[in-house]
Amino acid sequence: MSSTLLVYLHGFRSSPRSSKAVMTGDAVRALSTADNPMEWYCPQLLASPKQSMDMVTNHIDQSKADRIVVIGSSLGGFYTNYLAEKYGCKALALNPAVYAARELAPHVGMMTAYDSDEPFDFRPEYIDELKALQIEGISNPSRYFLIAAKGDELLDWKEMAEFYQGAKQLILEGSDHGIADYADHLPKVLEFISS
């Protein structure tokens, strides 16, 4: 019997309540069987990248699962690269911020989370923490699946496609940073998780 730990990492200022996280979680729980159990882990990430990764790696290290699959959206996609290289596991990146320190440097300061009024303090030292987690290149493209939208208004899909060269890629015409049509692509996501 093999068990799978499925880790889902949301994006910057987002939460486990994001529509992609909820949709994926429901689908994964529906796939989970007694013979092939799947544990769903989708934590609220912290403002500090280092603390976020300490929390997630701690959970992975304590898991009894035989295999790990990490899915991440945007900043979560950046974290996904770090974890996939650390654990040698399968990874699915959704419009990932492949160079998160550069992307987020202009966002240092106080702001609020997307789906709540919780204050969110993004400190200058967090940029250094992101730099410390940067993966320069993926070691084994066959473990990765990139879903990138040409219509992403925040990040450059061409940069993503280049970063995941040799990996399985689904490049969407149009769509947007949040992948509004994610439900249409969920079957491919589940296929990758199960394969």
From TrEMBL:
InterPro entries on file: AB_hydrolase_fold, UPF0227/Esterase_YqiA
SUPFAM superfamilies tied to this protein: alpha/beta-Hydrolases
Domain of life of the native organism: Bacteria
Any matching Pfam family: UPF0227
Name by which UniProt lists this protein: Esterase
